[in-house]
Amino acid sequence: MNRPLAPSATWLTVVGLEVHCQLGTHSKLFCACAVEFGAPPNTRVCPLCAGAPGTLPIPNAEAVRLALRAGLALGCAIDRESRFDRKHYFYCDLPKGYQITQFERPIATGGGLELATGRRVRLRRIHIEEDAGKAIHDRGPHTLVDLNRAGVPLIEIVSEADLTSGAEAHEYLVALKETLQFARVSECDMEKGSLRCDVNVSVHRPGTPLGTRVELKNLNSFKNVVAALEHEAARQIAALESGTRIRQETRLWDAQSADSRPMRSKEDEDDYRYFPDPDLPPLSLAADVVERERADLAEPPAQRRARWQRELGLSAYDAGVLTGSRDLADFFEETARLSRAPKEAANWLANDVAAALAKTGAAGPSASHLTPPRLAELIALVARGSLSKGGARGVLAAMLARDESPERLVTELGLAQVSDAREIEDWCRSALTGAERAVADVRAGEMKALGALIGRVMKASLGRANPELVRATLLRLVQEA
Questions:
Q1: pLDDT tens digits, residue range 427-452?
Q2: pTM for the model
Q3: Which helix (H) or strand (E) holds 86?
Q4: Lower Cβ count inside 10 Å, N or C end of the chain?
Q5: Positive or negative CA dihedral for 455, 460, 463, 465?
Q6: C-alpha 14: how far from its chain's center?
């Protein structure tokens, strides 16, 4: 494996990203074939997918709508009359010999995302295109082709060369992914190939023109993007410092060896022989359609985090956890509104609910019987003293599996909090029996010993005893003894 020299401080790295995002449709971009990850090879294919002569493409209206939402969510200018073009190249996974994409007039241009430093990463364009099939090269001497993916609707999001490091690229990709998820454009699951990234890297010395650009492919995780980018920058610097000229090429990244290898010389636009697709008219969007989608967009995740910290008093950590997905963020927002206890709602969702869901394997609260009204009711039961926090955890576990209200479950499970002074005192006296050493420690100011005594009471009461009354009663009995 080659090990390039570490980047020198006298060199600047310039990075642009091309992100391919699979749109969340049920069918392909120009035919009715299903989009289904993991289906048996070549079972989601029709004559159009296979490039049969005489077949005609029909645009998927839902794919266009989702591409529009992506452009709006990223602050782009929307072209209300974009156009489809043919991009010609010859490879085994492209049976037509061309890809339908948008070249001259993409659906969206401009826009961008802001990094934590306040620096803006500009977008050049977002265009709609069909995916190619999948070529499988590791099955002996032959290359196998699966056309299930051919024709799946994508958007390609092209950034300007505004990034300068692996850390910035990672931050940009995280922000892009959550923006697309919150806009309900795509699930952005890299393991399923619904988010893929190509990286363009060049280096140059300060005050000199930009260097020759090299494209890196086969990057199936954000971690690999960072590793490949940093490796390529170091490789170019080492080559230039040794007097070697950088070739404009496409390279494949090998995550196992942490190295890259040449794939092909990098094509220029003229090599693809773009021209307007004669089978597809211009793609027209009515003004009211654009404005309706703009109005329907959810508040962006970064703005939600800032608002929750400013208005609801959430910590930056909790706000970050609760914007882990659009569904979770919406669930918290509604629970906080209904309970009028945003901090308690955040604590429950970020800690107890998350832990309970992890045990069941549920993808999120909405995948269980838990709802915002029911979680708000559980929070209210604890706040009123009708249920201890320990008892509430037991009720929560039952709520995830059963379609019943918290109040009914409290009754069924016998978890109502006990605040009867006489019953509390009986439990406390039993806990003090044979605990002379702990009593002496409490008298000496050892509060850890008091915690152990409280634990004995809570165990005896099956978690139902009011902890504040238990604490006060134990302190009284210890002083009276």
A1: 899 989 888 888 888 888 888 888 88
A2: 0.84
A3: strand 85-88
A4: N
A5: negative
A6: 26
